[in-house]
Write a structure and sequence with these properties.
2% strand; globular
Length: 546
């Protein structure tokens, strides 16, 4: 009986094994494949994510361009009523700020008040006029160093989300402290700190926004941030006009905005699933993707798992991934280092022109608020045109043509440039209007090139060094921007000189970009090794087909 029972049990087990379905195998996909096939290339969840992330660009713009107003030279001065100085009365007929250089301090005053700008409050005119360029230069120098710091931080430890949060909070604190500056030297130091703090916003926001969408949507999505950068630019004349009698109030208002954003909106932003995966946190990356899919009305397969891009061995996965996240891996990889240097050279010229033209606007013969507002409005068609053309043309062609147009426009501005002595001669002359129109076109072209370079850099490098690569590009942009204020100060004496240098550098940037590969519709890679092998295979297949 026992033998029969054992045979019966054994037979049932064999029958059950034949009837039972085979164990389910895991479906291993990359983040790119999950987004394209299951989450959706650009659904409502990604739209809300990109929108919330891109809002931070407003503060980046405001804190960068605030010096157009806070550091502006007042447009008019007058003799004090009780002053009977004949020299003062004769000099006031010129209307030029340089004509006060030979006057006694108690015989004249600025029409807008001594707190309208730092130049008015601290007397940064005549033999002290070049001191007015120091804060802006130090701001961009701080941005240059901050870009490297926050870029490394976002790749190696904190991630994209927490780095943006840290940058916003520090921007708020340093902007408020700037409003308390007792002299030009403390002000310059705090502008340096503010530039360092805000540099994490731009480099991390564009990466955080583009890493969660499909490859064909990356170009248009990357422009979201620049729309909000433009919104911040447009808001500046409105805020500055109401604080025109006290530059300190302008900084106090601007300091409140990133703090409010960090508390009210930023908690709803998700971390990049690509960064989480590269850091070995695959479960968290999958949770983020599931959340995006759920909000898009979709579900992910139960047996889905994310492919490990580094193919690290078990037990040493995190250590291997961490090593790959350091900046040394980029500079020690020959093809990546060459590519990075080319991007930085192109970025230097574009940054010099983009920020320089905005700061140089005071050397045009127009009302400052009107000129800044017009330049800000030119950002709108620049972003729209850039968004459309990114979907139709290659990144390299669009960048180079935009840089060429910006350079040619700057050179044409020389034909209409007037010295400061002619400022009051005829403010409505045809030459002045022509100069303003050409300058606006040049600025719009520089804005397109500036925006496209960010997108281009995101696509040129893999996830484990992407934030660092964007930060290096940003460093080059800020290096150019840090030198621009010195040229603007020289332009107060010779406007033609500033436009000539802007034009030459912009054209050079367009030429150097032709040494970069095209990235339109290319996949976003996760590691340097993966990208190198795939690009070599593509080149090999193209040679074989030829």
């Amino acid at each position: 009986m026992e033998d029969q029972a054992q045979n019966l049990v054994h037979g049932n087990i064999q029958l059950a094994e034949r009837v039972a379905p085979p164990p389910a195998t895991n479906l291993e996909l990359t983040v790119e494949e999950v987004v394209e096939e299951y989450v959706g290339s650009f659904g409502w969840s990604q739209f809300l994510h990109v929108l919330l992330v891109s809002l931070a660009w407003i503060f980046d713009s405001q804190n960068t361009l605030v010096t157009i107003f806070s550091d502006a030279q007042p447009s008019a001065w007058r003799c004090i009523n009780n002053s009977s100085s004949s020299l003062c009365l004769s000099s006031s007929s010129n209307g030029d700020a340089s004509s006060v250089c030979g006057l006694m301090p108690d015989t004249w005053e600025w029409v807008s008040g001594h707190t309208s700008s730092i130049i008015a409050e601290w007397g940064l005119i005549c033999d002290r006029r070049f001191l007015a360029a120091i804060p802006a230069s130090l701001f961009f120098l701080g941005s240059l160093l901050g870009s490297a710091f926050f870029g490394h931080l976002a790749d190696a430890s904190l991630g994209r989300k927490r780095t943006v949060l840290l940058s916003c909070l520090l921007t708020s604190v340093t902007a408020f402290l700037t409003s308390l500056s007792p002299n030009i030297w403390v002000y310059s130091l705090l502008r340096f700190a503010n530039g360092f703090s805000r540099s994490g916003i731009g480099i991390c926001c564009i990466v955080l926004a583009t890493e969660v969408v499909g490859r064909k949507r990356r170009g248009p999505v990357s422009q979201f941030g620049f729309f909000f950068f433009t919104a911040g630019f447009l808001s500046l004349p409105l805020i500055a006009y109401h604080t025109r009698t006290n530059w300190r109030n302008l900084y106090k208002i601007l300091s409140l905005l990133p703090l409010a954003y960090s508390v009210l909106f930023f908690p709803f932003v998700s971390e990049s699933p690509r960064w989480l995966l590269v850091r070995g946190r695959s479960e968290e990356a999958l949770d983020v993707l599931k959340n995006f899919a759920r909000l898009n009305g979709k579900t992910l397969p139960e047996n889905l798992c994310l492919a490990n891009p580094s193919a690290a061995g078990e037990g040493g996965e995190n250590e291997a991934l961490t090593k790959n996240c350091t900046e040394e891996s980029l500079w020690r990889t020959k093809w990546a280092a060459k590519r990075m240097i080319t991007v930085m050279i192109a970025g230097f010229g574009v940054g010099f022109v983009y920020y320089g033209v905005q700061l140089n606007i005071e050397n045009l013969n127009f009302n400052l608020y009107f000129s800044v507002g017009l330049n800000a409005l030119m950002e709108v068609p620049a972003v729209v045109i850039g968004t459309i053309l990114l979907g139709l043309t290659g990144r390299r062609l669009l960048f180079s043509l935009s840089a060429f147009l910006a350079g040619i426009s700057c050179l044409l501005c020389i034909l209409f440039a007037h010295g400061k002595r002619a400022k009051n001669a005829d403010k409505s002359s045809t030459g002045n209007w022509a100069q303003l129109a050409i300058e606006g076109i040049g600025f719009m072209a520089a804005s397109v090139a500036f925006d496209v370079l960010y997108v281009y850099c995101v696509e040129l490098f893999p996830t484990n060094v992407r934030n660092f690569a964007v930060s290096q590009s940003r460093q080059a942009l800020m290096l150019g921007a840090s030198i621009a204020p010195l040229l603007v100060a020289a332009g107060r004496l010779s406007p033609s000189l500033s436009f000539l240098v802007f034009g030459i550098l912009s054209i050079f940037s367009g030429v150097i970009s032709w040494w970069l590969p095209e990235t339109r519709n290319a996949p976003l890679y996760d590691t340097l090794k993966q990208q190198e092998e795939d690009e070599k295979n593509k080149v090999g297949s193209q040679i074989t087909q030829a």
